[in-house]
Structure formats: C-alpha cells, structure tokens
Write the structure tokens for this entry.
Amino acid sequence: MKKMDVMMAVIFFVGGLVATGFGLVDAWSGLKSYGWEENPGVILSSKIHTPRAAGHRSEVYQAEFHYRYQVEGYTLTGNILYPGYESNNTPEGAEKWTHRFPVGNNVPIYVNPDNRRESMLAPGLHLEHLLKPFSGIAMVCMSLFLFSGVRRRR
C-alpha cells in the first residue's frame, strides 16, 4: 500500500507542477496582451462547438471565431478569443462570447506589436488564467500532504 501512496503523491506533484506551469504561461500571455494594439476587424464566423472526448458523457461548449483585421495595409485573419481559452461548462457561457462577437460586426482586434500575425478578440487576464495555476498549486499541496502521510506511517 505504501508504494501506491508514494506513486499517487508523485503523480499529484508532477501534475500540479505541469498545471501551474501551463496556467502561468497563459496568465503571462494575458498580462502581456494589455499592451497590444487595437486594429479594426470584422467577425467572419462565430459558432459554438461541442467537442466530445471518446468515452465521456460530459459536454463542453467552445465558442469558435474566425475574424479578419487590417494592419499597416495588410489583411490578416485570426481565430483566438484569448490565450488559454478552452471551453465553457454551459451553453450559456459560450453564448455570452458568441453574442459579444456576432458575425458581420466590426470589432477591435488586439494585435501583438512584435508579431502582427498574433491577435485576439479579448485581451487581458480572465478567470481561466487564474484557475489553472491555483488548481496546480492545490495539487502540489495535496501531494505534499500525501507525502507527509507516507512518512508518518514509516
């Protein structure tokens, strides 16, 4: 039983570090986007996709966009809502985004001044940016708790 406890603790620790790392990268991207330039654009498509993992019954709702924008006389396209956006748990959550960016609307597109091909619709920090690193930290804490339990039993 001790080997299983140690293995679970290691899995939680590594998984927590990975989740924290990915979350911090997304959060950093969100923070950097506050300085991105606003350029005129138009929404070409806006829909809700419900990808389903094989063997899972739960559904997620993903707002998907395709937009066109102008930068220094060039026409470019993009499809990023914000860095790290994956999905919503309810159709209403995804609908909020599609209602905010309906097809045909002229909208500001936020463009990275260092890479004009990098763009997004909703710059800044979002709740998802904070949940990932905090979830990872919680997993690391859980692993430390499991490690301490294993050590006490010895």
Observations:
- The two ends are 12 Å apart (CA to CA).
- The CA atoms of residues 5 and 150 lie 7 Å apart.
- The chain has two domains: 1-34+124-154, 37-122.
